[in-house]
Specification:
The protein is of the alpha/beta class. It has five helices and six strands. It is 45% helix and 23% strand. A six-stranded mixed β-sheet has the order 1-6-5-2-3-4, sandwiched between helices. The radius of gyration is 15 Å and the shape is globular.
Length: 160
Amino acid sequence: MDAIPLIGDNVADYRAALPAGGALLGLDLGTRTIGTAFCDAGWRFASPGKTLPRGKFTADKAQLAGLIAERSIAGLVIGLPRNMDGSEGPRAQSSRAYARNLAALGLPILLWDERWSTASAERQLIAQDISRAKRAGRIDAAAAAVILQAAIDALAGGFV
């Protein structure tokens, strides 16, 4: 029987599950879309990827498996939408359930607090003078990049 991959929010445990580093895939799970972002194997920078339409889980998983294979992904970072007081509501529980379902892909999964990620991504896109119409199509992938960058900063810098 295969070992169940690590799923959690502890940076040190996640780092230990990726002893050789490796490229990571960041996900911002929305109700209608999934924003994706990728980082280099040395965990220096995150870049927005595609925004995928969200559908039935089997279709989502197939799309993500394709990206994982294409980019030789070593681990996943999934945004965990906590409430402002740090508690978890229905959206966080949904993200945890999605992560458990993605465990079948066999990769370690880090759940990263995503409070303010969309607002930060929006500010970055505005600073780049991207029109409101274009921002709407890019915001989820930009938010995934914000989530992934924060996680790799913690991983590379040893902040826990």
